[in-house]
């Protein structure tokens, strides 16, 4: 008699996928801020998620900012209107953009239009996300040291939307001229495909 282990596949709804992607954004951004030293290490605590240990902020003002941004982006994920989220790290003194972390979102339009939700094992999705977060943790091996005081901004790109919060402002792309670009792994819920990359100012450009 043979026994075979099988992945337990589950239906991935539009709202369920939006929640998965939003949670990934939260942990990815917090991991970047910790690994890049944008906030003091003592402002973070460890938490196990996706089968790995991650660093999450215990800074109330930062967590409030992220919660505000991500709650809105979650709504746009659910409506299929979110195209890209960008974390910008800037030199406080010179206002120069040092790093630009981009999360590209490709949405399954059939699901948004009310089509049959796809199926995918939750463990498979979590494994893909864990792989990206490990890459973010390892990014310190190739990214230049940030030895200046930095600030962050989050840019959100959408299809035409009318429900933009009043306190949000228009921004330019905050691109880095002649940047070095590294593509990280992607993950898919079969409703949303998310690609992650980082553009940075190399030591030769400093």
TrEMBL record:
It comes from the Eukaryota. One of its GO terms (biological process) is mitotic spindle assembly checkpoint signaling. GO terms for cellular component: cytoplasm; kinetochore; nucleoplasm. Gene3D superfamilies: HORMA domain. Residues 15-198 form the HORMA domain. PROSITE patterns: HORMA (PS50815). Keywords: Cell cycle, Cell division, Mitosis, Nucleus. Signal peptide: none annotated. InterPro entries: HORMA_dom, HORMA_dom_sf, Mad2-like. Its main location: nucleus. It is found in: Nucleus. Belongs to the MAD2 family. This is HORMA domain-containing protein.
């Amino acid at each position: 008699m043979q026994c075979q282990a099988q992945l337990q596949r589950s239906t991935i709804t539009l709202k369920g996928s939006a929640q998965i992607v939003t949670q990934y954004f939260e942990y990815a951004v917090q991991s970047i801020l910790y690994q890049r030293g944008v906030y003091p290490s003592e402002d973070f605590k460890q938490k196990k998620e996706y089968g790995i240990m991650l660093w999450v902020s215990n800074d109330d003002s930062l967590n409030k900012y992220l919660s505000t941004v991500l709650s809105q982006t979650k709504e746009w994920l659910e409506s299929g209107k979110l195209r890209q989220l960008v974390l910008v790290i800037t030199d406080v003194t010179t206002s120069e953009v040092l790093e630009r972390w981009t999360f590209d979102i490709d949405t399954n339009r059939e699901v948004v239009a009310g089509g049959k939700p796809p199926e995918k094992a939750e463990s498979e999705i979590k494994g893909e996300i864990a792989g990206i977060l490990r890459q973010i943790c390892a990014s310190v091996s190739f990214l230049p040291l940030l030895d200046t005081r930095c600030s962050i901004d989050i840019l959100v790109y959408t299809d035409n939307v009318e429900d933009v919060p009043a306190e949000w402002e228009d921004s330019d792309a905050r691109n880095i001229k002649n940047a070095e670009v590294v593509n990280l792994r992607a993950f898919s819920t079969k409703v949303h495909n998310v690609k992650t990359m980082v553009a940075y100012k190399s030591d030769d450009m400093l």
